[in-house]
Each structure stands twice: as C-alpha cells, then as structure tokens.
Amino acid sequence: MRLYVYYRVPEPALPGVLSQVRAMQARLVETHPGLRAEVLRRPELREGQVTLMETYAGAVDQAFVSALDAAAATLPQPRHTERFVPLG
Fold it and tell me: Which InterPro entries match (predicted)?
C-alpha cells in the first residue's frame, strides 16, 4: 500500500513546516524498516498557500498509520489521507 497525505500551508510558514516534516519522516523511516518517505509541493500558490504532499511506501501498515497520526499531530491541519495499492 502507498499512503498520500496532503494539506495546505501559508507560504511564510513553509520553511518551518518543511523542517518539521523532514524530521518526522526521518524518525518514521528509522523506526519502520522498509519505509520510504518523501515530501512534495504543488508548484503554484493558492490563496497564498502551498499544498504539500507527503508520500509513504513500503512498510505501510496499521502500526505505521497510527505512528504517523501521532507524529503529525503538531503539523498543519486538516490533513487529507489517500491510500492506493499497486496493480501488480
């Protein structure tokens, strides 16, 4: 399964939020062997906000989802989560 989490951030807050997200992802990768994590952004601004997308692949199970929810509690909300599975 692959997990995609997206949310909006005011442009001035972007550097601080990116720092938080990267640190969170590094901790999650360290504690969930096989996890791959990335953070992306939409290139355009919408109403002065940047849309960020966190992606997770590999070790994405319920334990990971619970850990992610807890770790992301201090990040901007609301966070929208989508799950996809490869078609083989």
Answer: DUF4936 (IPR032556)
Q: Which of 23, 46, 32 is nearest to 3 (CA)?
A: 32
Task: Give every residue of the chain whose pLDDT is below 50, as ranges.
Answer: none
CA 5 to chain centre: 5
Q: Which run of H or E residues covers position 71? A: helix 62-71
User: CA end-to-end span of the chain, whole Å?
Assistant: 11
Domains of the chain: 2-84 (3.30.70.100)
Phi and psi torsions of 41, nearest 5°:
-135, 150
Tokens of 41: 């952004």
